[in-house]
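Appendix B, example 12.
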Amino acid sequence: MRQLLLTAPLDLTDKVLLETQVGGRRRIDVEVGSTVIEVKKDLRKGNVRTEAVGQLAGYVAARAKKLGARYVGVLTDGAEWLAFHLDGTDLREVTAHSVVPARPDVEGLLRWLEGVLATTHDIAPSPEEIRSRLGAGSSAHLLDRASLASLFKAHANSPAVLTRRRLWARLLETALGTQFEDRDDLFLNHTLLVNTADIIAHAVLGLAPESLPPRSILSGEAFDAADIHGVVEADFFDWVTEVPGGDAFIRTLARRLMRFDWSAIQHDVLKVLYESIITADVRKHLGEYYTPDWLAQKVVEETVPKPLETRVLDAACGSGTFLFHAVRRYVEAAIAEKTPVSRVVEGVTQSVVGMDLHPVAVGLARITYLLAFGTELLRHPERGRIRVPVFLGDSLQWRDSDDLFTPKELAVPISDSGQLFTTEKSSFRFPNSLLEDAQRFDALVTELSDLATDRPPGSIPPSIAGLLKRHTMSKQAQGIVETTYQTLCGLHDDGRDHIWSYFIRNLVRPSWLTRSENKVDALVGNPPWLAYRFMPGPMQEVFKKLSETRGLWQGAKVATQQDLSVLFVVRIVERYLREGGRFGFVLPSAVLDRQQYAGFRKGTFGTFPAAVRLAFDPPWDLRRLRPHFFPIAASVAFGRVAHRANAMPQAGEVWLGRLPERNASWAEIESIVERKQPPKRAAGAEASEYSERFRNGATIVPRVLFLVNQLDPGPLGLSAGNARIASARSANEKKPWKDLPPLEGVIEREFLFRVHLGETVLPYRTLTPRTAVLPITRKGKFYPGDPRILEYPRLAKWWAKAEAIWLENRSSDRLSLLEQLDYHGKLKFQFPLLQNRIVYSKSGMHLAAARIDDLRAVIDHKLYWGSVASVAEAHFLCAILNSAVVTARVRPLMSYGKDERDIDKYVWQLPIPMFNREVKAHARLSELGRQAEAAIADLDLPDNVHFSAVRRRVREWLEQSDIGQEIEATVAKLLG
């Protein structure tokens, strides 16, 4: 074992100790730094594992007590590697790694070991190294998280922890409403990440965190001494150093982090750190998608052409990518103008402001902001004081807090427990005259807090006469500030201090920026992307109300696709952007042309006289860049606040090219990206009258409750008109439905229908439809909720079981099972079923359409369907819809994911004429469609392959056949 540790690239040299005595004639097998390792031959035999864990617990406890530091215990037999930490007096397993002898993952074992031992040095902080060594699944992160949880569990009820915990919850609950889940584990994750960011901030700027007192690291004393404020400061998460054992935790965390050479950091690596620890699910919940560096740079350049004359706000700044480029742009322009260094620093911190509601993102953004200055400017002897203006706040203001301001003063309520106070001292009060200068106000609040807390609790508060004189205020204003100071002293005496300065400044900033004299000249950024369907119910209500009052709500048909991003843009434009001010926002590409964003594209929001009007400039369409840098394709919207609205132009820039990597710089991709005007689209409503005939099919999901297979009736058979059935299962099912057992039973055959799904439709041909239980008659009468359902006891029994499963597992309580099945009437509208229908695929890169003449066939939501007057008209439409010409022309109109994917009704924006058998071209297309259908019906198609491969085989036949080639030529001529 010693040889393995010394030979591996762990930077151990001769630091591996064997058989170290710990008293009581006990010896540690191997000791490395702050880790003790117990080695056994085989942990699978008998009680070896249990006894070894007991031994290890004693060793870890003895070492931790003697040296006053956190120790980790490792138990191994070479195949299994288990890491433990001491939780009080119990040793708990935190992380493990297994070695498979037949396929040993040497690199994986070494990374796991290195994370536990934390002995390697000078690791380059590349995105890959950050993810693997500090990410949420790394052994280092899991051990640090477990240690912090033990610390919190032991001291959760102490005043130092309780105050911070409650204020953290209060601020985020104010910002997020019901979307915020007040959980201890979330508070701990934020604590660990902000502590990590604080340590990295010191390391990045050349300070040595391992040599600093832990409390000074989390309070930013070294930054204050250098007259750099607002980067690291006392916040919700410095409770760690207020409790016993916290200093040891911070020292251990610093030692782990200092394995990296942070002097070599690039600012975009901070995004990687955030994304590697905050899980994708959490980021999706908040609608966070971090912008590539090159795109942020170009948006800032486009939106802020005169940086020295423009105040810029990123109201959803994340880790600070837009702020970095705004600061860098200002600094470069100021230096080019030979501006004195002191004025450069003062100017940029007044001109570039950031805000975000996520405390971890704010911690990283503050470091990013400082990095944008560059070391030469930071170390310049004439630079002056720096106060980084990045704030933790709710810029959207779901719950409007503008009532903090009265005509004469600002009042911030005091509550760290959710209760309401009614006494005069229930709020911190400041005269409005102090709010004209934001940096002055921040400095005053910080000084008052420091004077109140830098004294023994209960002692006489020192005079603030000198402070009041220095800040030059009226007698009345002095009295207000004196009262607030006494309140801060009282909170300190009660053990509820140290956090209020931070809380006041961050709570006030969003409201302060809404004042007319404080509004900014430009807004940039990437607002949160959160679809309506992913919002909690109460949040949906508020979102809908705010959207309706601004003309953004587009109705039930597209409700689930509406997105927070455009409401965010309108809301922060209302609040923070002055008349004539410009904006540039990265938004979902659907903003450019999809129905759910039609209200946004108009540019007028609200009603006179409070309406906001935007004059849009041509947007950037980024859908054709590959690979996509977000899960959803992107665009950029530009414009300004104006007296008269200017709707978003249909024509903008289309960007094309293949990107080398997600976070490449603009210099790296400039020569790769092509920017050109888009193809023209049909103006206004759909160009074809057929649009009104076609509808989306029924939402027959979750399929486990509806799609079935018919079973053998068994040895006793069944009475006439009944069938034995069980749920049809599929590998494509999603949780929670995939984990549920199938439904089984007997059903009246009247309620068994054939169902065509997207996967059963090919060009000109259908595959075998599926079977579904649908509680509806052929005349379109629903039975659930109708007393007559008792006439069909087997249906009633099946439906009762299905509904119970639905109620237990549905993602929200908005819809009953029947409402889900008949969402927007898309099932009932199909009845009575018609014989001559056309269906075509909703999604995919190629249209596939076929004729349906089955009077028991229902159409699923993965298809669109429409009725036709005759078989001849059906052949005509099939010939047009299945042509490659139509697919090529509709593709620019389709929504984008990784590729063009949703055809929907965009096909009817093409000038497809109504069928007229008297027109020669129409009649010929109908005949060609009939011939194609007959030929493809006889094609020998492959079995047991994905339906997309079968569709491809049909398309290949059409491309090579005379029929297919004539169809293409005729359709191209017909469409012009």
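Residues 184-204 form the longest helix (21 residues). Confidence is low (pLDDT under 50) at residues 416-425.
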